[in-house]
Amino acid sequence: xxxxxxxxxxxxxxxxxxxxxxxxxxxxxxxxxxxxxxxxxxxxxxxxxxxxxxxxxxxxxxxxxxxxxxxxxxxxxxxxxxxxxxxxxxxxxxxxxxxxxxxxxxxxxxxxxxxxxxxxxxxxxxxxxxxxxxxxxxxxxxxxxxxxxxxxx
Length: 153
What we know:
alpha+beta; SH3 type barrels; five-stranded antiparallel sheet; single chain
């Protein structure tokens, strides 16, 4: 009986990992980004609805509801609104959700700081490793930021 106990633990651990990967994949399926130069977020699903604010290219949004050619979305601050589905894409981006985030030369605190990003900065997602995300600014400068300081995919 004890010989199977470690095997059961391994199976349980693998199951948890698959569940975590599945939830990451599910979250990514519910995420979109602005594909045009700007996008109007509206208070309802239609062009007659009032414009709440404009979002720029790449801004990540989480889909919370679908209605025809419109999707209800949530941003990193929890604000919600409606956007035309045709104006969204699947290019992953992150927004800095902490006051300041160190941009590092590699995925870990042992790597040197090569820059800083501030709250609300929009960054293109290039790679993910464990708890770190390699990001790139609009001008091409980038590095690694701890995932806990970011929102997006």
